[in-house]
Structure formats: structure tokens, C-alpha cells
């Protein structure tokens, strides 16, 4: 099946700004995630621009859902009277 040129193509690599937009957070927060090693990324070019592979972002999101579920399970919400 040939690619349809009319369909939007998802790029393999995203800028930190792209990731920030996807996660609805700041580029600074994404940079911190990358520098801490929480979100795998690569540095490219002479100016050392960061890129995050789309698959890595999806894995990060899955991992955050799992960690959040663990947290919620261990700290159940109790409504106060």
C-alpha cells in the first residue's frame, strides 16, 4: 500500500518543543526530563540539538501511566467529611 501524500506524516524524531507541546508542558521541563535520563533522547548536529524519537515518547508516557497507577494504588484518595 503506497503512502498517501495527503495524509499527515508523523516524524520519527521530535524537537523538545514538539514534545513539550505533546505533553502540554514547557520545553524547560522536557529538557530536564532528558538531562535526568527519564526521557531518552539524542543530540544531533554541531549545535547539539536534542531530538526525541516518537517511540521513546510513547514508552515514556506508558511508563508514567504505570508509575501513576502504582502511586494511586499505594495512596488511595480518601474524601474528608
What does this entry look like structurally?
The protein is of the alpha+beta class and 81 residues long. The chain has a single domain (13-74), classed as Multidrug-efflux Transporter Regulator, Chain: A, Domain 2. The protein contains three helices and three strands, in the order βααββα. It has helices spanning 16-23, 27-36, 54-74; strands at residues 13-14, 42-44, 49-53. Strands 1-3-2 form a three-stranded antiparallel beta sheet. A hairpin with a 4-residue loop joins strand 2 and strand 3. Helix 1 (16-23) crosses helix 2 (27-36). The chain is extended and about 55 Å long.
DSSP helix count?
3
Instruction: Summarize the biggest pleated sheet.
Output: 3 strands, antiparallel
Number of strands: 3
Order of helices and strands: EHHEEH
Structural class: alpha+beta
The proportion of residues forming helix, as a percent range, comes to 40-55%
Report the CATH topology name.
Multidrug-efflux Transporter Regulator, Chain: A, Domain 2
Shape: extended
The strand order across the widest sheet is: 1-3-2
Nearest-integer average pLDDT:
92
> CATH first level: which class?
Mainly Alpha
The oligomerization state is: single chain
CATH architecture descriptor text: Orthogonal Bundle
| Weakly predicted, low-confidence segments | none
Strand percent estimate: 5-15%
What is the distance, rounded to the nearest whole angstrom, between the alpha carbons of the first and last residues? Answer: 60 Å
Q: How many separate structural domains?
A: 1
Query: How many whole angstroms does the radius of gyration measure?
Result: 17 Å
Amino acid at each position: 500500500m503506497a503512502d498517501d501524500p495527503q495524509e499527515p506524516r508523523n516524524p520519527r524524531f521530535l524537537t523538545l518543543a514538539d514534545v513539550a507541546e505533546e505533553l502540554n508542558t514547557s520545553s524547560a521541563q522536557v529538557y530536564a526530563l532528558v538531562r535526568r535520563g527519564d526521557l531518552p533522547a539524542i543530540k544531533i548536529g554541531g549545535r547539539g540539538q536534542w531530538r526525541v524519537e516518537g517511540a521513546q515518547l510513547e514508552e515514556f508516557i506508558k511508563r508514567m501511566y504505570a508509575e501513576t497507577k502504582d502511586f494511586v494504588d499505594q495512596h488511595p484518595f480518601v474524601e474528608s467529611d
